[in-house]
Automatic annotation (TrEMBL):
Organism encoding this protein: Knufia peltigerae
Record bears the keyword Transferase: yes
Protein name: histidine kinase
Protein's GO biological process: phosphorelay signal transduction system; regulation of DNA-templated transcription
Catalysed reactions listed for this entry: ATP + protein L-histidine = ADP + protein N-phospho-L-histidine
Length: 737
């Protein structure tokens, strides 16, 4: 349609047809005369479609509102006026179109039931419970409605014609439709229930059943689908009891009209969300809201006055939202309200002190309260006394001919609507006077607009103060970040100098006490990396040195022939292979995360060396090593170091080689001692140099003890040699695990 076209939702596979009157008169008359599911159409809108055509234009019949949305089971007709020409929107469908309400009342649900008698019995009961019900008897139609319509819940029978209920539910869930589904069926066996839940049903009710149970289950499903497990919803001082259908404000029941209840229900079910005018009007007025009407604003004004608070907030250009008040403002409001309640209590005591029963048994006041506001009409200060049946016996002049709508047992403070649509704060108390035949209800009330104004002003001022505090806090935070990150900026600059090669370490002097430990750790990391690079470079040099001699021998024997030449080739090739294997097995990268038992490695290496030097019958022994003593490094590195030391000791030992280890100053100390001739003083300085061998007769690579020292140094340890009288003692200090 053109102009102010309505958005309508169809529960039908048939399209919505827009029929311009001037061009489609015959089609319109044919469609309008089509029979409906409920017999001949009697709705005024249908009469417009049938008879109200004059000279190609629609003329509404008397009493027909031109923009009213008319619904009935067979057709949906909407009469719209656009530039003087009436157009009719015709929906060919079975079922109804309705807006749902977020309060759990007047929600749109689908009833898919092929038993016509049961569906006819359930529909009015569900509508009486507050739901708008679409009834279908075919599975395919139910499946299509669930795919395209905004349903709050669905009740599905499993034995539907066309498409069974399980398939309907599975297709809904497969397409992401997540509204609650309650299965209502005569199939009550356990595997039928499992199949229903597996298909995606949320609840399962077998026939026969109690309708009250069906309604309660449906309410619970819808409530949980909105994220509310409890039947009581709350937003600040406002509480909705869904089951009782009652709103309480600060513990006191609110008197609301049906439309006011629907509006407030929709707000509390969407608490915190911004709700636009069209959306709110559609739900509150059941789809019949004119966007140009001020009915919604009037309704909001009435509800706001009854709430007496700013729970409903206006979001400019977007709509409204229900939000709990800020804690500070709420505390101020409660304090101010308590002060006002105390004043009302004093006025109540003053009023009751003057009340008495005269000789005729009539209620009278010896003297009216002195407050001049009680004498000024509609001043905002009122008092009233009624009997137990609610008849007004005495009241202040300020009420004029109005009354305060109240009935009470006991005593309580509450909010009341007053004359001129004022919002009142009232003290209500039931009293029994001497010589009285019945109790009386006394009310003292005052206009709470001053209280609300004070609360609003406080909230505005506190919001401004809070904004200033937040701005100041952000400024302080920005300055802290700026000045606090300066040491990190200096650290980054120094790291860049290290990367460029302008410095070897980070100067921690200007980093501050908080960042200096980080600089120390980075320096330790740089030192470790430098040691690893130096070790890799040294290892490459050592390997080149180890291969140099065999290659020289091979070059010298290149022209040789015969068995001697082949023997030399095999010998030198074996030496080169041994050198390569040693560096492949050494694990040149120190791993401080691994923990290696020293006793286990020492015993294994002693057994190995006893076999290597078996022709000399040497004894290799590991003595006095605790089982829990661990080396903080790779086992391959420890094996390489001990193997090298034991092998060198075995070459010079006379009868035995001994290995001992113990913890010393948070390090592992390992001693390898032989009973050989030892070394001269000048030889001790040379023996750890790369490529130096004291016994050139031994078949070795010529790398000496330097490899052991390099591996130990990579872990932050060291190697020391000294004469032991007799023999030589090699001592390793390594990190302890």
């Amino acid at each position: 349609m053109r102009g102010a076209q309505r958005h309508t939702r169809a529960c039908s596979p048939f399209p919505i047809i827009h029929v311009p009157i001037l061009s489609s008169l015959s089609l319109l008359l044919a469609l309008a005369s089509a029979p409906t599911a409920t017999g001949p159409a009697q709705d005024p809108a249908q009469q417009v479609a049938r008879r109200a055509v004059q000279q190609g234009r629609y003329v509404p019949l008397e009493g027909v509102v031109r923009d009213a949305l008319k619904r009935h089971p067979g057709q949906l007709l909407e009469v719209e006026l656009d530039d003087g020409v009436y157009e009719v929107e015709i929906l060919r469908a079975d079922g109804v179109v309705a807006a749902e309400d977020g309060a759990g009342r007047l929600m749109r649900i689908l009833l898919a039931e092929d038993d016509a008698a049961l569906a006819e019995r359930l529909q009015p009961l569900l509508e009486q419970a507050g739901y708008v019900v679409d009834v279908v008897a075919d599975g395919r139609q139910a499946e299509e409605i669930g795919q395209v319509e905004d349903l709050q819940a669905a009740i599905v029978d499993l034995g539907l014609p066309g498409l069974d209920g399980l398939s309907v539910i599975e297709r809904w869930r497969g397409n992401g439709r997540d509204f609650p589904v309650l299965v209502l069926t005569a199939r009550g066996r356990w595997h039928d229930k499992l199949a229903g839940f597996d298909a995606g049903a949320d609840d399962y009710l077998t026939k026969p059943f109690q309708t009250d149970e069906l309604v309660l289950r449906l309410r619970a499903l819808i409530r949980r689908s909105h994220g509310h497990a409890s039947p009581r919803l709350q937003c600040g001082p406002l509480q909705l009891d869904v089951n009782a259908g009652r709103f309480d404000l600060e513990g006191q029941a609110l008197a609301l009209s049906p439309q006011e209840f629907r509006l407030l229900s929709y707000f509390i079910h969407h608490s915190g969300q911004v709700i636009g005018r069209d959306r709110l009007g559609e739900h509150v007025f059941d789809g019949g809201h004119d966007p140009d009407s001020n009915a919604l604003d009037v309704l909001l004004g009435r509800v706001r006055r009854k709430l007496g608070t700013d729970l409903i907030q206006t979001v400019r250009g977007q709509g409204w939202r229900l939000a709990a008040p800020a804690l500070l403002g709420e505390l101020f409001k409660r304090s101010a309200r308590d002060r006002l309640d105390n004043e009302l209590q004093q006025d109540m005591l003053t009023l009751l002190a003057q009340a008495e029963i005269d000789a005729d048994g009539q209620l009278q006041l010896r003297q009216e309260p002195n407050d001049a506001r009680f004498q000024r009409v509609f001043s905002g200060a009122y008092w009233q006394i009624t009997n137990s049946s609610g008849k007004v016996l005495l009241q202040s002049r300020s009420l004029w001919d109005e009354t305060l709508p109240v009935a009470a047992t006991g005593a309580a403070e509450r909010n009341l609507p007053g004359p001129l649509q004022q919002s009142l704060r009232a003290r209500v108390q039931q009293v029994r006077l001497p010589r009285a035949n019945e109790p009386y209800v006394a009310v003292v009330a005052t206009d709470r607009s001053a209280l609300d104004a004070d609360v609003a002003a406080f909230r505005q001022r506190s919001a401004m103060a809070l904004a200033v505090l937040v701005a100041a806090w952000l400024a302080v935070l920005a300055s802290q970040v700026h000045f606090g990150l300066r040491p990190l900026q200096r650290l980054g600059t120094q790291l860049e100098r290290v990367r460029r090669g302008d410095a070897q370490h980070i100067d921690t002097a200007g980093l501050g006490a908080e960042i200096a430990p980080l600089g120390d750790e980075l320096n330790a990391l740089l030192d470790h990396q430098q040691r690893m690079v130096a070790r890799a470079r040294t290892s490459a040099q050592d390997l080149a040195h180890a291969l140099k001699t065999p290659l020289s021998v091979l070059a010298a024997e290149a022209d040789g022939e015969g068995r001697a030449w082949r023997a030399t080739l095999r010998e030198q090739g074996a030496r080169m292979q041994a050198s390569v294997d040693r560096y492949l097995a050494a694990g040149l990268t120190a791993d401080h995360r691994e923990r290696t038992p020293v006793a286990t490695v020492a015993q294994a290496m002693c057994r190995l060396m006893a076999r290597v030097h078996g022709e000399r019958a040497l004894q290799f022994q590991a003595e006095g090593i605790a089982d829990d003593l661990q080396f903080a490094g790779a086992s391959a590195d420890l094996e390489e170091m001990l193997g090298n030391l034991l092998d060198n000791a075995g070459k010079w030992a006379q009868r035995e080689v001994t290995v001992t280890a113990r913890a010393e100053e948070e390090q592992v100390r390992i001693d390898v001692r032989d009973d050989g001739p030892g070394l001269a003083a000048e030889a001790l300085a040379q023996v750890t140099q790369r490529g130096v061998r004291l016994d050139e007769r031994e078949s070795s690579s010529g790398l000496g003890l330097a490899i052991v020292g390099d591996i130990a140094a990579s872990y932050g340890g060291r190697l020391a040699l000294e004469n032991a009288q007799p023999g030589l003692r090699a001592t390793l200090w390594l990190p302890m695990g």
